[in-house]
Structures are given as structure tokens and as C-alpha cells.
Write a structure and sequence with these properties.
The strands form five sheets. The chain has a seven-stranded mixed β-sheet. It has a six-stranded mixed β-sheet with strand order 7-2-1-11-20-19. The chain has helices spanning 15-29, 56-63, 67-73, 110-119, 131-137, 163-176, 223-228, 292-301, 346-360, 368-394, 402-409, 414-426, 439-448, 465-484, 489-496; strands at 8-12, 34-39, 77-79, 81-85, 93-97, 158-160, 180-183, 186-191, 198-203, 208-210, 213-216, 233-235, 244-250, 260-265, 268-274, 279-285, 312-315, 319-321, 325-326, 329-331, 337-338. With 502 residues, the protein is α+β, with helices and mostly antiparallel strands. Helix content is 35%, strand content 19%. The protein is built from 15 helices and 21 strands. It is globular and about 75 Å long. α1 (15-29) runs parallel beside α6 and α9 (346-360) packs antiparallel against α10 (368-394).
Length: 502
């Protein structure tokens, strides 16, 4: 690190974003950076992001966290995917799993073999050959890297957890690694008259905290990047029109299923996230099509267990900042942008941006090239996730409400239109090389939302009809045998990371 590299890092804002940033920087830069995190107990956090995707395991590994201790301390459960109910049409449901259906053969994706069989009259859906779906249906979970001695991959998983407990867990970790926490509300921001860089913040107590680099984790306010540095916001409401949410906890599910549920409603959708001590629920909706009172009633009517509080409203505008890093300040979390939690990407975007900032952190006074690369890569990631979310809304047969008619008929980005057309033609996936979502994810959501390819990849003709039937049958047998050996999700939790609820 050069002599002029930042030596002091100030993180403004706590919550999940602030403490992930603090934990990662203290773990990897703790010997070269003095790190201070400023937060106020008087300012609440949104805290609805209780579901994750498998990339979080990478962060926990980097931090050296013990998985079972982490799950126990956050009242967590395990997650194999997201069940989508009533999205493509009322009465339908499918599971977007974290794993592949079946197994690829001769470099041909499994769904192409299934697609060929379906064209010949095969009546089983793709999920009949999904290890994750079979395990989820039977509420089973266990560590399974591979199915027997075959090439079939095992269970890919993530977590559900209490976001406030997760932030507290990472706070303890960060403070053990030297992070200093300051309580207070930012009253003013000082900047260098020549460069425009932030030089310090002053708290309501009068304490001034100077820094070489600042991370803005102040949520939707974007106190530093938005308000002080004036970075504008790109509004994506025309594609993702939901602008409100209400969240409410309810009693624990009788059976702890290892998946999140997203149920489409008349003007949005409702989530259900099973934790060990309670269930997280929320209704994401567009206030142009439903009142807050009606949205709250819809949420409560859709609960599977007794509510433990009153719904609390949250307002948002889907989109992102024009820049994610300006001057000597990067925004992490809600201050950088917001993509609704439909595919549980909120916490992923936090850790992704933190990881990227670690890779490109300034090594000297001039960080123009690093800043430009950071902004480019963050923008691409946001847009790729945006398109994947739009797919759920736009690719639907629903016309039973004004909201769904709008979504079905709205114009969407060309990047998504191309992917839909390609899959509808041959089941092929036009996936970008650095896309967060794998080919298997695009295939599951396309099929689940009602896209039926008119053809298939001719490379799937490498098997005879008899061999194809045998291959499909063998895949199903392997899945059934593997799931039979797994403990239930409840049994796994009880053995490894049970929470004392008494």
C-alpha cells in the first residue's frame, strides 16, 4: 500500500450493510486501516431482508464464521430456493431452486433433454427431476455435496435469519477485530474546498470524526452520496412498479420448510420466511393500485400463523444511484439503490459491493481508474438483477387486475426481450458471463412463468429414445434415494444449531 493510501475508514450507518462492511474490512484490512462505524440507536433500520442466496456462504467463509454458531445466534434456518405461487397464472406454483434440475450430459443442459422428451409427449415437469424440489417438498435438509458417485451436484443452499440479530452478530465480530463504534446522528459534513472530498463528519454530540475514505450505509436517505455529494438516482419504477411494503412477524410455522415463499397478490406479492422462533412476512405492492389499508388487510389475511405485531409500512423507489462511488465515498446497501427482495438479492448486493470495494480500494491519492471500474461493474450487476426481476412480472398470463395487466403489457429492456425470445425459440439461455443468476435459474423462472420453448437444442438428440427414457428414469431414482437419506430440516437444526425458545 502506498504512502498516500487511505489510513482511516469511516462507515456511516449500521444495520446489515454497515456491519457487513465493517466485518469484511476489519478482517482483511484491519492491520492497515483504522475503522470507525457511526450509528444511532434512534434511527431504525429497514431490516426486512431475512432471506439470502448461496453467495453469502463465501462471505461467511472469508470472515471465518462457524456456520452452526451463526445460524443459531441469528435464529436461522436453511433455504433451498423460493417457491412462487400464482405468478404465471392463478393456481400455479414452482420452485426457483439454487441447484440444477437433473444433471447435464455431454455438455448439454439437462432441461434440453427434458424439453426434447416433453415435445414427444412426456408428462413430467422439470421439477420432477429436481433434487432441491424433492427435498423441499419433504421438508428435508442436510449437507450433500454430490449425489453418490455420479456427476449430479448436491444441495446448494442459503439461509433465512433475523436481520437485526445478524447485524448484532457482525457487530460483535467487527469490534473484536478493532472496529470502533460511535453512537450519534450526523449533523454536518465537511469537504475539501479543492477536491470536494469528504474530510470529516460532525455528530450531534459535537464530536468530529475525520476520515480518508467514507462508506455511506445510511439507507434510503443516502446522506453522504446522495444528499451531500449530489449523486442522482435512476428511477426504474416503469419496469418494477411496486413502491411500498408492509412487514409483520407471525408465530413459528408448524413445519419448518427449507424455502422462502413468494405469493402473487392483486397489486404485488407477499413473502413468507420461516425462522426458528417466528415467521417473517411482508406484502410488497404498488400504492397506485391498492391503498395502504387494503394492503395491510391483504397481508394479514394471507398469514399462515398468528401475527405478533401490527404491519409497519416502508416506502421505496426501485432503481439505483447514477454512481456508486463518488469522490472518496462509496454507498453500500439501500443508499446505493433498491431492488425489491423478490429474489433475496438485497444482502447479496451488500456483500458483492463490499467485496468489489475491497478489490478496488484506493492504493494512492488518485483512484479514478478504480472508481470507474467499480461503478461500471456495480451498474452491470444491478441491471442484470433488474432484468431477472422484471421477468417475473412481465412474463405472466395474469390479466385479473389492473396491476397485472400493466405488468404484462409494459415495455421492458431489450436485454430481457432478447432472453425471452431465445428461450421461447429453443430453450437456450442468453446469459451474460458475469450474471449472478445461473442458466438453471433462468430456465426455471422462464418455465415457471409459462414460457414453453417451441424447439430444443439439437445436441439433445445424442441419445436414442430408449436411452433418453432410461436417463430420465435413472435421474429420478438417484434423487429419490438421495433425499430418503436426508434428515428433516427440523432434525438437522435440532442436532446442529437449535435455538432455545424457552
Amino acid at each position: 500500500m502506498s504512502q498516500n493510501a487511505p489510513k482511516t475508514l469511516v462507515i456511516v450507518g449500521g444495520g446489515t450493510a454497515g456491519w457487513i462492511a465493517a466485518a469484511a474490512f476489519s478482517r482483511l484490512h484491519g492491520k492497515t486501516l483504522d475503522i470507525t462505524l457511526v450509528e444511532s440507536d434512534a434511527i431504525g433500520t429497514v431490516g426486512v431482508g431475512e432471506a439470502t442466496i448461496p453467495q453469502i456462504i463465501r462471505l461467511n467463509t472469508i470472515l471465518g464464521l462457524d456456520e452452526h454458531d451463526f445460524v443459531k445466534k441469528t435464529n436461522g434456518t436453511f433455504k433451498l430456493g423460493i417457491e412462487f405461487v400464482d405468478w404465471g397464472a392463478v393456481g400455479t406454483r414452482y420452485l426457483h431452486t439454487f441447484g440444477d434440475a437433473g444433471m447435464n450430459l455431454a455438455s448439454v443442459p439437462f432441461h434440453q433433454y427434458w424439453n426434447r422428451a416433453k415435445a414427444a409427449g412426456h408428462d413430467k415437469d422439470l421439477w420432477h427431476y429436481s433434487l432441491h424440489k424433492h427435498a423441499a417438498t419433504h421438508a428435508k435438509f442436510g449437507k450433500l455435496d454430490r449425489v453418490g458417485n455420479t456427476s449430479m451436484t448436491g444441495l446448494a443452499y442459503a439461509y433465512h435469519f433475523d436481520a437485526s440479530l445478524y447485524a448484532a452478530y457482525l457487530r460483535a465480530f467487527s469490534e473484536q477485530h478493532g472496529v470502533i463504534r460511535r453512537e450519534g446522528i450526523v449533523q454536518s459534513v465537511a469537504r475539501d474546498g479543492e477536491s470536494g472530498d469528504i474530510t470529516s463528519i460532525t455528530l450531534d454530540s459535537g464530536i468530529e470524526i475525520a476520515g480518508d475514505f467514507f462508506i455511506d450505509c445510511t439507507g434510503f436517505r443516502a446522506l453522504l452520496l446522495g444528499q451531500e455529494l449530489g449523486v442522482e438516482y435512476q428511477d426504474w419504477s416503469r419496469w418494477l412498479p411496486c413502491n411500498s411494503a408492509q412487514a409483520v412477524p407471525s408465530e413459528r410455522l408448524e413445519t419448518l420448510v427449507p424455502y422462502t415463499r413468494a405469493t402473487a397478490k392483486g397489486a404485488g406479492w407477499q413473502w413468507r420466511i420461516p425462522l426458528q422462533h417466528r415467521t417473517g412476512n411482508g406484502h410488497v405492492y404498488c400504492s397506485d393500485f391498492i391503498s395502504d389499508d387494503e394492503a395491510g388487510e391483504t397481508l394479514l389475511a394471507g398469514l399462515d400463523t398468528k401475527p405478533l405485531a401490527d404491519p409497519r409500512p416502508i416506502r421505496f423507489t426501485t432503481g439505483r444511484r447514477e454512481k456508486f462511488w463518488s469522490h472518496n465515498c462509496a454507498a453500500i446497501g439501500l443508499s446505493s439503490g433498491f431492488l425489491e427482495p423478490l429474489e433475496s438479492t438485497s444482502i447479496h448486493l451488500i456483500q458483492s459491493h463490499v467485496s468489489r470495494l475491497l478489490q478496488l480500494f484506493p492504493s494512492g491519492e488518485n483512484a479514478d481508474a478504480e472508481r470507474a471500474e467499480y461503478n461500471r461493474r456495480c451498474a452491470v450487476e444491478f441491471e442484470q438483477i433488474r432484468d431477472f426481476l422484471i421477468l417475473h412480472y412481465h412474463q405472466t398470463g395474469r390479466e385479473d387486475s389492473e396491476f397485472w395487466r400493466y405488468c404484462k403489457n409494459m415495455e421492458v429492456p431489450d436485454s430481457l426481450t432478447h432472453k425471452q425470445a431465445l428461450f421461447a425459440s429453443s430453450g437456450r439461455i442468453g446469459r451474460d458471463a458475469d450474471d449472478l443468476f445461473r442458466e438453471a435459474s433462468w430456465a426455471q423462472v422462464m418455465l415457471g412463468q409459462g414460457v414453453e420453448p417451441s424447439g430444443y437444442d439439437p445436441m439433445a438428440n445424442g441419445l436414442s429414445d430408449v436411452q433418453l427414457d432410461e436417463f430420465l428414469g435413472n435421474v429420478r431414482t438417484l434423487i429419490e434415494r438421495a433425499v430418503d437419506t436426508l434428515p428433516t430440516h427440523e432434525q438437522y437444526l435440532q442436532k446442529h444449531c437449535a435455538v432455545d425458545l424457552h
